[in-house]
Amino acid sequence: MVAYTVAAGMFVMSGQNLPNKNWYADVPRTDLTGTSVPATFANAALSLDASMQTTATGITLKCRMSPDGLTYYIFRFFSSGQVQILRRDPANTALLPNASGLPKLAPLKPLGIANHVELACVGSTITAFINDVRVVLVTDTNYATGQFSFGITTTAGDLDGRFSNVQVNSATLAP
What is the pLDDT of residues 151-164, one digit of tens each? Predict the structure, then answer.
């Protein structure tokens, strides 16, 4: 079971992985009464600081997720530096082709040190940065709006990811 806790000002997801292999926290917004509710965004960016505590842990950020959680774009990276951007729907998970000329491996900091991560979904463009280096740039028109979430994933072993400075901001395309 994976536990969600707050320690030293960070949101922590850690524990023994079960068959799910993926654990997420949706990014809410606060309505006028102070109640946290799922937020839907069109042209926006999710930025956060994330650290992996084990080599088995990967970090995931989703954008344009449907309210039922069945369709979305997912950006994920692993301690090896490998990055992926996928489109998910109930019948299929498709690896989207990344733009040429981008780094094959993300410039990650050592385990336990936070990496600054940003995922922007603007119009038909999806882009991701790790430590201010663009690592993903794709175009896809399947989903125009949706929710953000972030989390951890693994292929085996225990999970341990730490998150801080989580923000969602409106976004425009940058060159």
Answer: 888 766 677 778 88
Are 98 and 85 in contact by the 8 Å Cβ rule? The answer is yes
The tens digit of pLDDT for each residue in 75-101 reads: 999 989 999 999 999 999 999 999 999
Token output for 116: 């600054």
- Give the whole-angstrom CA distance, residue 85 versus residue 111: 22
Paired sense of beta strands 133-139 and 72-78, if any: unpaired
At residue 106, φ and ψ (nearest 5 deg) are -75, 145
The domains located in the chain, with CATH, are: 2-170 (2.60.120.560)
Amino acid at 6: V
Residue 57 tokens read as 């842990």
Nearest C-alpha neighbor of 52 from the set 9, 114, 4: 114
Cβ neighbours of residue 30 under 8 Å, at least 6 residues apart?
Answer: 36, 37
